[in-house]
Amino acid sequence: MKLTCPSCGAVHSAEAWGNDAQARQCLKTVAEMPREVSARALAYLALFRPQSGRGLSWSKALRLLSSLQDLVARPYVQWDRKPARPNSARAWGQAMEQIIGHPPRRLPLKNHNYLRAIAWEFADQMDRDTERRKIEAERTGRLMADRPERHISEVLSSEQIAAQVAEFKARLRKRKEKQDEISENNLG
Fold first, then answer.
1. Phi, psi (degrees; rounded to nearest 5) at 13
2. What is the number of domains present in the chain?
C-alpha cells in the first residue's frame, strides 16, 4: 500500500513510514488526540511546510504535534491577557477548520499562536452560550427542576439540639481543663 504525506507530498509504502521512529511517533501523537483535532491535524501541519518546496521534517512535525497536543489537553484556553476560558477539543477543531479553509496570508506558520487566538474566540463564544443557557434556565425555573430535591432526612427537636449543645460545651470544658493542667505542669 502506498501512502502520500499530506504535508510534503512524499509517497512511500506503509512499511517505509513505519520504519521511521519520528514518523511513528507523529502518527501515534495524532491518534492520541481528540477526534475533532486529529481529523484536521495533518492538513493543519501543511500550513507549516516551507515555501522552498522542501517537505516538513518529521522532527519538526513531531515538535508541532506535541505542542498542539499539550495545548488541547490544558483545562483552559488563554490568549493575549484575555480571561481564561474552559478548553474543549471542539473549539480547537473549529479553529483548525477555519485556518485550513482560510489560511493566513503569511505562510508558513511559525508556531500555534494564530491557532490559539482563534481557538480562544471559539472557546469564549462557547462559554458565553453556556452561561446564556444557564441564565435562561434559572429564569424559567428549569435549573431547579434539573437538580434533585434535597430532603431533610431528620428534623431535630429542641431537646436534641439542647443535648448536642450541652455535649459540645462539656467537650470545651474538658479541653480547657487539659490546657490548664498542661500549663501548671510546665510552670511547676
1. -75, 160
2. 1
